[in-house]
Amino acid sequence: MSVIPAVDGTLPRQRASKREIFGWAMFDFANQAYTLLIITVVFGELFTTVIVGDRDDGFRLANLLWSLALAVSYLLVVVTGPLCGAVMDYRAAKKRFLFVSYIATVVATALLYFVAPGYVMLGLLLIVVSNYAYSMGESFIAAFLPDLGPPQDLGKISGFGWALGYVGGLFAAGFTLVALGEATAENFERIRWVGPFAAVFFLITAIPTFLWVKERGAPQPHAKTYREIAWERVSTTLHELRRFRDLGIFLVSLLFSMAGVYIIIAFAFIYGAQVIGWDESIRNVMFIIVQITAAAGALGFGFIQDRIGTKITYQLTLLLWVAAILAIWATPEVTAWLNASLGLNWEAQHLFLFVGCLAGLSLGSSQSASRALVGLFSPTRKAAEFFGFWGLANKLAGVIGIIGLGLLQSVVGLQASILLCAALFIVAMLICLAVDQARGERAAAEWEARNGQPVAQSAGP
């Protein structure tokens, strides 16, 4: 198909076929099995309360070890993410790198079956490997986003992916909680299958991604080694970052906001078990509530951001997060006050379900908006590299947030330390005030005009 260039000389991005967009979004559907079952809902609680156990310290050592495992995996992403992204762009190899990360995640996750009580080092090793591979894949799949549609559609496409991801999580974790039961020592022989189940779910449901998502662009001449390509391109990008000022500012804001998000992802259900003291039935209901509200938040705010602007939407989601964190922290005290004032007989776990709705809306919408904004600021020929920096900011945030929370809770306890998240979200909001979305989009278009752009792809199947 023929395409008329825009006034600035660039070719407009064409919307991909519905099948390709669905195939891309199915990776979000598939990888939520890992995020929820291993990091958030089941294995994190199993590791801290059963594999390590309470050493008469209120699980503080267990929480710290869990923090360290996640932080090491994220630190590895920080070191390697942008370098891999540079090679992927240069060699048009996004699908190849994505496939390697996918297989590595599946294998390491399946091996979690062998982590029994007391096998702490094996558990730490497999979490580092599996979470590193999963996190790299998260950046690799995001690098396809700018190719899937014009700027005005990226919010909806990103939101659709996140929403479908939470639906996938609802299926995966819902089945696990019903079929495998709770994460306790008495139920260990059943719940230990959570790793193999998450691996098989990811393995099967990600197949449409590799069948239908296209590898656009052409590989450049391969006269240099991958290491030389990576360092040369990343060095050039770092030198050019002054031209992508708004991307740079936003990534700093993202560093703080995602530090808070990663704390919640890693410790929300641990918080429920240790601070709220919820029953298994309430934990299961909370999981369903968070998945539904997160999907609704990602999808709803995806449409909103294409109308009012992605930056404004991102700021609104951070405001939601501050309210959610304060509610999480205050749940035990507010429950006691309501019971005393109104003569009620509520338990903290019941009020915590209402807090889960607010946290879910914040979770889906904030991550979708941040991914879409990076897509708007990324030239198509540097998308993988820029999303490598997005992954760097995300995972460096994970290192800072999770280590910070792990150390802080070892001193003041988990409930008080959760307030760290609110402070992180407020700092992120203040930094983002300096981001100019229109200027950031112009910078991406001007780079493409100067450096040329590949021929636009047909939107057909």
Automatic annotation (TrEMBL):
Top-level taxon in the UniProt lineage: Bacteria
This protein's UniProt keywords: Membrane, Transmembrane, Transmembrane helix, Transport
Domain called Major facilitator superfamily (MFS) profile: residue spans: 21-440
Transmembrane regions listed in the UniProt entry: 21-44, 64-85, 97-116, 122-145, 157-181, 193-213, 247-273, 285-305, 312-331, 351-374, 386-408, 414-435
Protein name: MFS transporter
Compartments in which it is found: Endomembrane system
PROSITE patterns found in the cross-reference section: MFS
Native source organism of the sequence: Billgrantia antri
Bilayer topology: Multi-pass membrane protein
Tagged with keyword Transmembrane helix: yes
Alphabetical list of Pfam families matching this protein: ATG22
Record lineage: Bacteria, Pseudomonadati, Pseudomonadota, Gammaproteobacteria, Oceanospirillales
Entry-linked PANTHER family: AUTOPHAGY-RELATED PROTEIN 22
Keyword Transmembrane helix part of the UniProt annotation: yes
Classification via SUPFAM superfamilies: MFS general substrate transporter
